[in-house]
Specification:
Chain lengths: ~120, ~300
């Protein structure tokens, strides 16, 4: 099972399923990194609304993806995290230090749009 | 629940026979034991008040009922109804607010009454011992059942009160669109902090809040544990894309936290609720950060 990646304006939207296998993660990572180049996307929204669990492994993969995307010139924003998931992650001390966060896709989009001119000026 | 798992006691035929001996002795001496018990019970203020509230007919009726249940248990070996009665008594007296100690007084008096008669009775030593032993078993069993029912009832009362207090203690107030306030008043323990964080996160999702002001002016003590909970709440909110401002850290608490080395890393703090609201309004209106949280590295910038 893998995640659909959709082009949205000059961004990409990856909608993660309820759970992802190791190979699913790898495939998602490869696809997003490739498509950022194909579409010359400036930002990626990662929608985790469906996910019930983000353990330390998944957190590391997710934040690692953000760091890789930054090297490809795109910012990442994680959107739609459920209260229970956020609570569990905070209890375990898990963070997403390299990713922006937003309540939902709408907020994530306006965040990325606001970030655009800044990064264009070579922050 | 403990009361429900306490099954019927099972006694060997010898034990059941000694209960019967005890019952026969008790009934033969009942008038004098009862008279003694009534006099003694009057000396305990709590029990005297209870007895004064009942008419002699009521007392008579209650005792007759109790006698019948005891007879069924001791002589016929039908313990169920008697056990049920003890459970009901324990629950009733817990609700009525009778102290636990009063029960021990009742049993002490009852035992004393029977023992006095045993001493003056002309019985051989073996039988005396058997009866005395049976009485102790019987009384202890009664006390166990009453005690468990009593404590269960008290426990339930405490639990429902705690739940009520928890609900009351964590209001989440909406000041305007996208802005919530959580005033925290009173001691924060682990359980409350957990509940607080959960209602905070639930409210963020439900009301689509972009900014939450958590005010701790009314919290008397913040130790490293509570500080850790506050950091976790802010961190969890950030993961959802919402910023938390902590306000109302008093000079004493600030000193204590820094001394403990728990100086709330990554939490935005403002001196009081007013400042936090003003800053929050400005921040939301300016739109510079509104709507999402930047990566930590950037968000840490003042």
């Amino acid at each position: 099972m893998s995640a659909p990646v959709i082009k949205l304006e000059q961004f990409l939207l990856a909608v993660l399923p309820q759970s992802l296998t190791d190979s699913g993660w790898r495939e998602l990572r490869d696809r997003v990194l490739r498509q950022v180049g194909e579409h010359r996307a400036r930002g990626v929204l990662v929608d985790v609304t469906e996910m019930d669990v983000l353990d330390s492994y998944a957190t590391r993969l997710l934040d690692g993806l953000s760091r890789m995307l930054r090297l490809r010139g795109a910012q990442t924003v994680v959107v739609g995290m459920q209260p229970g998931v956020a609570f569990a992650m905070a209890q375990l001390g898990l963070k997403l230090p390299s990713s922006g966060t937003a309540l939902d896709v709408d907020d994530g989009l306006s965040y990325l749009r606001r970030q655009l001119p800044r990064s264009a000026n070579g922050r | 629940m403990t009361t429900e798992t306490t099954g019927e006691p099972s006694f060997s035929p010898e034990e059941q026979a000694s209960f019967k001996d005890y019952w026969e002795f008790y009934t033969s001496q009942r008038p004098s034991i009862s008279a003694y018990a009534r006099e003694e019970l009057k000396k305990v203020p709590e029990l005297a008040a209870l007895m004064a509230g009942m008419s002699p007919e009521q007392l008579e009726k209650q005792e007759a009922q109790s006698q019948e249940l005891q007879r069924a248990a001791l002589v016929d070996g039908r313990w169920g109804p008697w056990l049920e009665r003890q459970r009901a008594l324990g629950a009733t007296y817990a609700q009525a607010g009778l102290s636990f100690g009063a029960w021990f007084q009742v049993l002490r008096i009852y035992r004393e009454g029977v023992r006095r008669e045993l001493q003056s009775a002309n019985l051989d030593a073996a039988k005396l011992l058997r009866i005395s032993h049976a009485m102790d078993r019987f009384v202890d069993l009664g006390m166990e059942i009453i005690g468990v029912a009593y404590l269960d009832t008290k426990e339930r009362t405490i639990q429902s009160q705690q739940a009520a207090i928890r609900e009351l203690s964590t209001p989440v107030l909406q000041v305007r669109e996208k802005l919530l306030i959580i005033p925290i008043v009173g001691m924060v323990d682990t359980q409350r902090a957990r509940h607080l964080t959960q209602s905070l996160l639930g409210a963020i999702r439900q009301r689509r809040a972009r900014l939450v002001v958590m005010d701790i002016t009314g919290v008397p003590v913040v130790d490293s544990k509570v500080a850790n909970h506050l950091v976790q709440a802010c961190e969890a909110a950030r993961l959802m894309g919402t910023r938390v401002i902590l306000s109302g850290v008093s000079p004493e608490i600030a000193q204590a936290l820094v001394t403990l080395g728990a100086d709330l890393p990554g939490v935005i703090t403002m001196v009081d609720l007013q400042t936090a609201l003003e800053e929050g309004e400005r921040w939301l209106a300016g739109g510079e950060l509104a709507g999402a949280m930047e990566p930590v590295a950037e968000a840490a910038r003042p």
